[in-house]
Specification:
The complex is a heterodimer of chains A (about 575) and B (about 90). By secondary structure, chain A is an alpha/beta fold. Chain A folds into 3 domains: about 120 residues, Phosphohistidine domain (Glucose Oxidase, domain 1, 3-Layer(bba) Sandwich); about 100 residues, Enzyme I, Chain A, domain 2, CATH 1.10.274.10; about 300 residues, Phosphoenolpyruvate-binding domains (TIM Barrel, Alpha-Beta Barrel). In chain A, helix 19 links the parallel strand 15 and strand 16. In chain A, helix 2 crosses helix 5, helix 11 crosses helix 13 and helix 19 packs across helix 20. Chain A is globular, with a radius of gyration of 25 Å. In chain A, about 50% of the residues are buried. Chain B contains 3 helices and 4 strands, in the order E-H-E-E-H-E-H. Chain B has a 4-stranded antiparallel β-sheet, covered by helices on one side. In chain B, about 40% of the residues are buried. Chain B has one domain: Histidine-containing Protein, Chain: A (2-Layer Sandwich). With about 90 residues, chain B is an alpha+beta fold. In chain B, helix 1 runs antiparallel to helix 3. In chain B, strand 2 and strand 3 form a beta hairpin. Classes of the chains: A alpha/beta (about 575), B alpha+beta (about 90). Chains A and B meet through helix 2, helix 3, helix 4 and helix 5 of A and helix 1, strand 3 and helix 2 of B.
Chain lengths: ~575, ~90
């Protein structure tokens, strides 16, 4: 075989641009349940099995303590508490009892962990949240007993390309961006958590790349997060592309702070944030305001509603990062992939089409009213211009009702999200009731295409480049334009963070784009390279395409700056 | 059998960090220590070295718990533990 032969290439969907080379680390598969009724092997006495079990628990404990030693803040405290659980007498004693009655140590700790987790779960509140920690410890002990790698993101000293089936929201907490240089998954789609995490951290990422699970640990690869490709054994060209990207990334890290086309058409470039820390980072990155403040951060992982005072304080932390600027706050969007025990019904057969977002006000009245009152109080002492919007609005009656609630709370700029196709079609009537709309392209795409955004096999359907989705966006803009007061239409979905698509959205007539702060500079740079008339031509190309792929290719071909910047 | 009563001073009760500190302290003592709520019978007492048992006990701020230990050093051990429980560990 000649050295110039490309050994192997994998192709997926590029979800976050960047080109790098690095060594692969596979995320271990989740620990499988030891079979029910698994007995002690014949060559292992119960006494020896107990010794093995205790040793495994101690070793897991030592490992967690070691990690706690190098962690900081809240993460450190969690690791320390989890380490204590690993060798906890309650957990171990119950398992030892099972081993003494003939169970394999793996099955014994599995069952003991399950009953402890159930006990904590039944206690509710803070204890119920700790049940997950017990299950994590249990999985670690089973992996240790089997001699398998510990579950979760590998902890190694050298930077690496993380390859996984998909990442869960919980993995974000343990993902160290100084160690992980790129993300590659065999599952997931463009709207999956992996994609969102990668964009937020500015890591090159490719999802839905079938076959990558087979790449051995330590294999050198080249990842192109714009093209969606992974090359095993990088060529000299690949290495040169990675070096060039590193230089581009450094220049792209700066955003001038004003979104504008080359001929002076202003487009506000805002940031999506999930709390005060994000907001401060977004302000630093030059965001012209906040286009989407997700308020779930205050509610997720709790079993009761945060108090109004607690909410006021949290919202004000975000508002204070943007004095004199616009902050669009979205009311609680629970349900579907963001369940909340006190608000949503986990047993719904079809949660994405269930009681979620604004609809939770019908089944749990009061929560939304208290949230609006907290927002109004926080807005009162703030210099930011506060706009409020409701998620999952389907009809103009809902928009009217929400606007009424905002008025009662003393909030002067009510709006709604357009995520449900019916809201796009009824934009004109909806804008009779509220002052603005913001397109949530992730959900709008999954509902327009009837394709669950978490499912890898449906990744192609879930592309925001789908002409059907772009046409729904155009209908929304037309609805707003037919209104005498020309109320603004914004986009706050992931589509706004793709520089090529952002240009198309501007051409369709979208007034503001809100994205993860990392994308501001890339979107700003590409926007500044085109005139308003050119954005309209590009929009026309995309709208008249027959498929998502055709739309994307046609637009990208007309934007050579993307290739120059490696986007 | 030595016995001491203590009132939980931590504002969040004997959960989370306070429970961790307490369980770790019990683990370092030369004697086995049990913990129970004031009104619970002694046979329902739990292992005080277990953070999971402490969490299950669910002792809140202001609740009174009973610590029990036997053998040499039991009195001293219990005195040191009462001191921990009656300190607001969250305030540190």
């Amino acid at each position: 075989m000649s050295t110039s032969t490309r050994a192997l290439t994998f192709t997926g969907v590029g979800v976050s641009p960047g080109r790098i080379t690095g060594a692969v680390r596979q995320m271990p598969k989740p620990v499988s349940e030891p079979p029910k009724g698994e007995r002690l092997p014949h060559n292992l006495s119960a006494d020896d099995a107990v010794v093995k079990l205790r040793a495994a628990a101690k070793s897991v404990q030592a490992d967690l303590n070691r990690r706690a030693g190098s962690a900081q803040g809240a993460g450190k405290a969690v690791l320390e508490a989890t380490a204590l659980m690993a060798a906890d007498p309650l957990l171990i004693k119950a398992a030892v009892k099972l081993v003494n009655s003939g169970s394999s140590p793996e099955r014994a700790i599995w069952e003991s962990g399950a009953s402890v987790a159930e006990m904590l779960h039944n206690l509710g509140g803070y204890m119920a949240e700790r049940a997950t920690d017990v299950l994590d410890v249990r999985a670690r002990i089973v992996a240790e007993l089997r001699g398998e790698p510990a579950p979760g993101i590998p902890v190694v000293d050298e930077p690496f390309v993380l390859v996984a089936e998909d990442l869960a929201p919980a993995d974000t907490a343990t993902l160290d961006p100084t160690k992980v240089t790129a993300l590659v998954t065999s599952g997931g789609g463009p709207q999956s958590h992996t994609a969102i995490i990668a964009r937020a951290l500015g890591l090159p990422a490719v999802v839905a790349a079938e076959g990558v699970d087979g790449i051995a640990d330590g294999t050198e690869v080249f990842v192109d997060g714009a093209a969606g490709s992974i090359h095993v054994d990088p060529t000299d060209d690949d290495r040169a592309a990675a070096v060039a990207w590193a230089k581009t990334a450094a220049t792209l890290a700066v955003f001038g702070g004003t979104g504008v086309t080359s001929d002076g058409h202003r487009v506000q470039l805002l940031s999506n944030v999930g709390g005060a820390k994000d907001a401060i980072a977004a302000a630093k990155a030059g965001a012209e305001g906040v286009g989407l403040l997700r308020t779930e951060f205050l509610f997720l992982g709790r079993d009761s509603e945060p108090s109004v005072d607690e909410q006021v304080e949290a919202y004000r932390g975000v508002f204070d990062a943007f004095p004199g600027k616009k902050v669009v706050i979205r009311t609680l969007d629970a349900g579907a992939d963001k369940p909340l025990p006190f608000l949503t019904d986990a047993s719904e057969p079809n949660p994405a089409l269930g009681v979620r977002g604004y609809r939770t006000d019908w089944t749990s009245p009061g929560v939304l009213e208290r949230q609006l009152s907290a927002i109004a109080t926080a807005a009162d002492g703030s210099e930011a211009d506060i706009w409020v919007m409701a998620p999952m609005i389907a009809t103009s009656e809902e928009a009217e009702h929400f606007a009424g609630m905002c008025a009662t709370a003393g909030l002067k700029t009510p709006g709604v999200m357009v995520e449900v196709p019916s809201a796009a079609l009824m934009a004109r009537e909806i804008l009779d009731e509220v002052d603005f709309v913001s397109l949530g392209t992730n959900d709008l795409t999954q509902y327009a295409m009837a394709a669950d955004r978490q499912l890898a096999p449906l990744a192609a359907l879930n592309s925001p480049w789908q002409p059907a989705v772009l046409r729904l966006i155009r209908i929304t803009v037309e609805g707003a334009d037919s209104h005498e007061s020309h109320k603004p239409v914004g986009v706050c979905g992931e589509a706004a963070s793709d520089p090529a698509l952002a240009v198309v959205l501007v051409g369709i007539g979208v007034a503001t784009l809100s994205m993860t702060a990392r994308s501001l500079s890339a979107v700003g740079a590409v926007l500044a390279s085109v005139t308003l008339e050119e954005t309209r031509e590009l929009a026309q190309l995309a709208l008249s395409a027959r498929s998502a792929g055709e739309a994307r290719d046609a637009v990208r071909a007309r934007l050579p700056i993307l290739e120059e910047l490696g986007l | 059998m030595s016995e001491r009563k203590a009132t939980i001073a931590s504002r969040v009760g004997l959960h989370a960090r306070p429970a961790g500190i307490f369980a770790a302290a019990v683990g370092e003592l030369p004697v086995d220590v049990t913990i129970a709520m004031e009104d619970d019978p002694a046979e329902d007492a739990m292992d005080a070295a277990s953070i999971l048992s402490l969490m299950a006990l669910g002792a809140g701020n202001g609740d009174v718990v009973v610590l029990r230990a036997e053998g040499e050093g039991a009195d001293q051990a219990l005195d040191s533990l009462v001191k921990i429980l009656e300190t607001d560990l969250d305030a540190e």
